[in-house]
Amino acid sequence: MKAMSRREALADVELRVVVIGSSGPSQFLLTNSILGREEFPQDVCSIARSRKNYGEIAGRRVAVVNGPNLYDKDLSPTKMKEELRRCKCLSSPGPHALLLTFDLANICPNDIKTPKLIMKHFGKNCRNYTTVLLAYEGDLDRGALDERVMRTDWHLRELVEQCGCRYHFFNKDWKERNRDRELLQKIERMLAAMGGRFYTSHSYRQAEESVRKEEMKLKKKRAPETERVWHELEEQYRGEELRWQIESYNAGVGAEIRAKAEMDNSWLRTSLAVGTGLGFAAGATLGMVIGSVEGPGGIAVGGAVGGAVEDLQQLRKRRSSIDIPPDLRLLLAGFRGRAQFALTNAILQIDVFDGAAVSARQTAKHCGEVRGQRVTLVNLPNLSESTMTPLKNNLQTSLCFSSPGPHAVLFVLDVNDIPPDGINILKPITEHFGGNIIAHTMVVLYYEGAQSPALESSVIQNRHFKELMEHCGQRYHIFSRDSADDSACRELLRKVNTASSDHGHYSSQYTRMVEKRIQQEEHFIRKRRAKEIRNTLKQLEGCYSGEDHKRRVEEYEEAMRVQIRERAEAVVGRLGCAVKLVDCAAAVAKGAAVGALCGAAVGLNTVALGAAVGAAVGVLVGGAVGAAWNYMSC
What we know:
Layout: H1 6-11, E1 15-21, H2 26-35, E2 51-57, E3 60-66, H3 77-90, E4 97-103, H4 114-122, E5 130-136, H5 142-152, H6 154-161, E6 167-171, H7 180-193, H8 202-221, H9 223-236, H10 239-263, H11 266-290, H12 295-323, E7 328-334, H13 339-348, E8 364-370, E9 373-379, H14 388-401, E10 408-414, H15 422-433, E11 441-448, H16 453-460, H17 463-471, E12 476-481, H18 487-503, H19 509-528, H20 530-543, H21 546-575, H22 577-602, H23 607-633
Parallel strand pairs: 1-3, 1-4, 4-5, 5-6, 7-9, 7-10, 10-11, 11-12
Antiparallel strand pairs: 2-3, 8-9
Helix pairs in contact: 3-8, 3-11, 5-6, 8-10, 9-10, 11-12, 14-15, 14-21, 19-21, 20-21, 22-23
């Protein structure tokens, strides 16, 4: 039998979709549109209990989960939390897509906050699985809709950018299903970019575990009934017919039990009890401390005040993270020409590369402060001008320079020189860093001069650019350098910071291994220079005192930290394959030891033979396991 392709295998899986609305009927209209039937009345604007419905979209089985609107004023925060948990249980072990719905005619500034609210409830990485769905009425021109989203409506543009620039229009009339296939293709492309895996998180794993435990309890309760039905079927049928009847009965019972377990399980039942119990405990304690209200009143007031204090603490944490932006590490790669080097100069606002530079022979790292944020830019040589071996060496160096991992990869292209094979040009980066680096990749189109809407519009329609955008999750930025205005730089860093605040820096088994090697090298360097550092600190102590001494010590220690770190990165970057050889040597040693023990145990004449076999097995098995682990974790 011919093996199925990944796309065919994905198409055979039931698609789990969570539809989320901020307010109004848009999410329920979308559910009707996906299912091709009026599951919800046209005027419904909210539901008090999460629910799941089944149907087909463009021939593929789909399960659509609806929860309450996020800004539903009729639901208390406790009830909202409970229903969002139920929503997770109904879509466990995890959704393939989260569809965030809005009415195109009623977009308001408050809607811009919705993606962050989704990430708060579902986890920061759910952004990679989220698409904005915009409901419209009647017949509207597709080009005009796209123009409004990306050009004329600032609120809409910011909204879709928070979701990786993934969006789709749907008609409020569910009978109009001519765009179903397009929506399905967008979801499948988004899934393919994430390696075909559905979204999961700690809370989703909790939900699935609780649902399975509840299933076991329900099956145990129904065991006598199930056995009785089996006996009845055995009396009525024989052979293949009997087998088919039993399988049909088991499937029906299993689906019924699963549905009940998803709607009611221990995770849902304990969420309210735990929250209430903690509130009561905190309230009672606060009541005793302030001594102003006694008994149940103290509990109620204390719980309310305690909740307000907690909200205030969370708000302060969020404000702190906004006021002090974290360091940003960016990896820049270009096709050819000077675009990426000119972009580096523009971001750092200094000419670290000569104005006429069109290439670089080796990876370079430059640091600076941009609008109060420390930014590290790591530039690879142009990808079209590097032979395979030097490129691998430069990629290894770039991995060390951006360790513990880049927050974003900027693939910089000249707006007038978009290559037809951009996806293939990026392959060396995905092969070295891991396939999931694409989720952290943004295409930057660079040109000098004032912004030109006509030029930007023509670029967006470029076929090669569209293909590259699909591969990179629709993340792009058009950077027009105008010496009198730094708005393009501000906007670029805003986009990168928004993305990095959602999913952090890129990390894989290999990047973590490299960071560990760098830290080890830092330790060795610091140990070798310990005497020099002690002597310098003593000299500072003899020359300065008070606050001046403290400041001088801090400056010296920071300079030494940076110097040692850069030295360690350079050393590990030069090692390249030696990093992997160390692991191979470790595998040989461990394999030899295990082989010697096994040889002695089975009675081999010489332990050395067991050690030799163990060493060989250590290399082969260790390498295979390491390769498999790197594939799964990248």
